[in-house]
Amino acid sequence: MKKLFPVLVLAATTLAGCETDVNLPEPEHTPRIALRYLLSNATPTQQSEAMQAFNQLYVSHSQRMFDARPLQGRPDATVEILDATGTVVERFRQATNKQWQTYPRPRYEPGYYEPTMNFAAQPGQTYTLRGRLPGFEAVESQLTMPARPQIERATYTQRPPGDYGQLRGRLSLVLTDPAATADYYVVIGKLYDTQGRPYGDLMTEDTNTEFGNVGETFTLSSLYNDYYSSLAPYPDTNVNGRQFTLSSNVVSSTSYGGSNVPVPAYLELQVLNLTADAYKFYQSRQRYQDTEDNPFAEPAPLYSNIRNGYGFFGGMSGTTYRIQL
């Protein structure tokens, strides 16, 4: 939580041209568990490395408003996922660094956990998360997994390459939205070479699309565990129960350098449908970041759906569509 009270006091006294000290009483606080986790309809072993890191369970706890110590994660949590019958379908253990993993770094940053049962949630089914920490009240949250996105077709039309030879094109994606539910779509694009190896990411070119805005253009998302501004979900508010199209000019990023760069062979689109709670959390996180270092901004609290605690338990169901280049 931002420490706004001292900043506001300083700003107020500076503007008034006085040096009056104001003592503010600290609000009462009961320490509670804080966690985040995103449940997927794909098993962890089926998820990409970026997706595994993005979904990773993190457990910490709250602290007093005026406590300036860096908040640390907790390595001693017990967290389980249960299905509608009360059967435990997933358990977690402390995470270990993978060879590819640069962020987060569980070895140096406690609080990260990895699943042990390789569970994949089923769309339409209800699941409960339960978490415990020694000395804290247990927490719980429940969700119903959203339907998998229904992709009708997708096309990619090549455009002239960029100034540095990047692959550029026009992407168009047609989805059919179910009428009975509220849906929140995320689209991720990746390129692969002829050997099926990652070639690079596909990004929207020259866009100012705001979070949650569906218009004539849309923004591809990227998965970064601590940079939620790279996530661009689209609610079905204006397209509920209808077929709709998302289109965008896109450009590639590549991890290759030098000469003899391989040619990308195909484009893979991953379309995700988020639960409403996940959408609200990421939306609140974006608003929180937008107010950073602004003492006069309106409060931007983070959305939470954890009973007796803080954080969020969200779900996502995904569909993959491949386009040959």
TrEMBL record:
InterPro entries: DUF4249. This is DUF4249 domain-containing protein.
